[in-house]
Specification:
Layout (H helix, E strand, L loop, with lengths): L1 H27 L12 E7 L5 H11 L2 E7 L2 H11 L5 E5 H9 L3 E2 L29 E13 L22 E3 L3 H11 L9 H14 L3 E4 L5 H5 L5 E5 H10 L3 E4 L6 E10 L5 H11 L2 H10 L7 H4 L4 H4 L8 H6 L1 E2 L7 H13 L2
Parallel strand pairs: 1-2, 1-3, 6-7, 6-8, 10-11
Antiparallel strand pairs: 3-10, 4-10, 5-8, 5-9, 5-10
Helix pairs in contact: 5-6, 6-14
């Protein structure tokens, strides 16, 4: 009887221990056992002030993949580094016209969309666009515009046209994007031309206009142009819409204007450079950023216009109704997206070099 009783006790202990061990195993199991990865790191190349550090940490904690994060200040800087050795990055963010150029130069590779189920969260109007008509190479990230912002306490004036920025009262008072297509573009629009002008004679006219404007330009800054508007270092800005919105939050004297000639509109997209070492990790990272909660968190920190319609359900109403970030339809219709200009871009490069060297 004692032997049977002891055996019964040992059997009970064994069964309980097995159950507890099973529970521990279930608790320790990773959340995504079916996720395919290719290594324990990912190399990300993105614009400055465009992705919260907290979001990166959440990805690292969830998937145990280290994010090596590098930033750039312009599409041209990004392109130069990708051309010099794109395989060093697994994912980059490129604006619409730059995607077109990179695709034509075979600098990016197709994305396996089956690994990005959250792609369904992106609004239809942001897909099947000219720079990637079959949605093979890109996944939309954010979109937006470039606006004119004025500290009305320093200059109580309205900006109706880009031509107003040439007013001599603004001498040494402008902060503008460190972006050649954006800045050369306002000179072209002032003259009645397109942001995508290719006529050499018209581009020469634009250069002459910019040489007149340079006395008004105090700062070139694409990273954080809101900073100089907030601290009063600059009184007028030609800046990203989200940066203007953030500046307004800090300084209510800042007013935003949409010049009558039409805005520079853009859409930024995730791309995978040709020969990326960790393409599966890149697709996993993209899919993670498209999760509605994560996408909404990104917009909360950096309120660029978000193409993720599921994230909109979690975003603050004041953000979605902010006309600086999400302009009215008639404003959007008057705007222009930039296009790849092929060999003509060399003329833009030359103009930009001359403008910057004279500053």
């Amino acid at each position: 009887m004692k032997i049977k009783k002891l055996a019964s006790i040992f059997l009970s202990i064994f069964l309980v221990g097995s159950v507890l061990t099973g529970c521990k195993k279930n608790q320790a199991a990773p959340e995504n056992t079916d996720v395919q990865t290719d290594g324990k790191e990912i190399n990300v190349f993105n614009w400055s002030e465009y992705l919260p550090e907290e979001v990166i940490k959440k990805f690292e904690e969830k998937y145990k993949i280290k994010v090596n994060y590098t930033t750039y200040s312009s599409n041209e800087e990004m392109l130069a580094k990708i051309m010099a050795g794109g395989a060093q990055f697994d994912i980059a963010v490129a604006t619409d016209y730059m995607v077109d150029a990179m695709r034509k130069q075979k600098l990016i590779q197709e994305i396996n969309m089956s690994n990005i189920p959250n792609y369904k969260n992106i609004g239809a109007e942001f897909k099947n666009l000219d720079f990637d008509p079959e949605n093979k190479y890109t996944v939309p990230y954010m979109w937006g515009n470039v606006v004119v912002a004025v500290n009305t306490k320093l200059f109580n004036t309205e900006i109706i046209s880009y031509a107003d920025l040439w007013d001599t009262k603004f001498k040494n008072n402008l902060v503008v994007l460190d972006d050649q297509r954006a800045v050369i573009g306002i000179a072209l629009k002032k003259l009645g031309y397109s942001f995508n002008e290719t006529d050499p004679s018209k581009l020469e006219e634009a250069k002459k206009e910019l040489l007149k404007l340079k006395d008004n330009i105090k700062i070139f800054d694409s990273d954080s142009p809101k900073t100089s508007l907030i601290n009063g270092e600059a009184a007028v800005g030609y800046v990203w819409g989200a940066e203007a919105a953030l500046a307004q939050q800090e300084n209510p004297d800042i007013k935003v204007f949409f010049p009558k000639e039409g805005l520079y509109l853009w859409q930024d997209n995730f791309v995978v450079p040709k020969g990326a070492q960790h393409p599966k990790n890149a697709e996993l990272f993209i899919n993670f950023l498209l999760e509605p909660e994560i996408s909404a968190e990104i917009s909360k920190n950096f309120p660029y216009a978000n193409p993720n319609v599921e994230a909109h359900k979690l975003m603050e109403k004041t953000t979605l109704e902010n006309k600086v970030i999400y302009p009215d339809t008639e404003i959007i219709k008057k705007g222009e997206h930039l296009k790849d200009l092929g060999e003509t871009i060399k003329l833009y490069d030359n103009i930009w070099t001359e403008i910057k060297s004279n500053k």
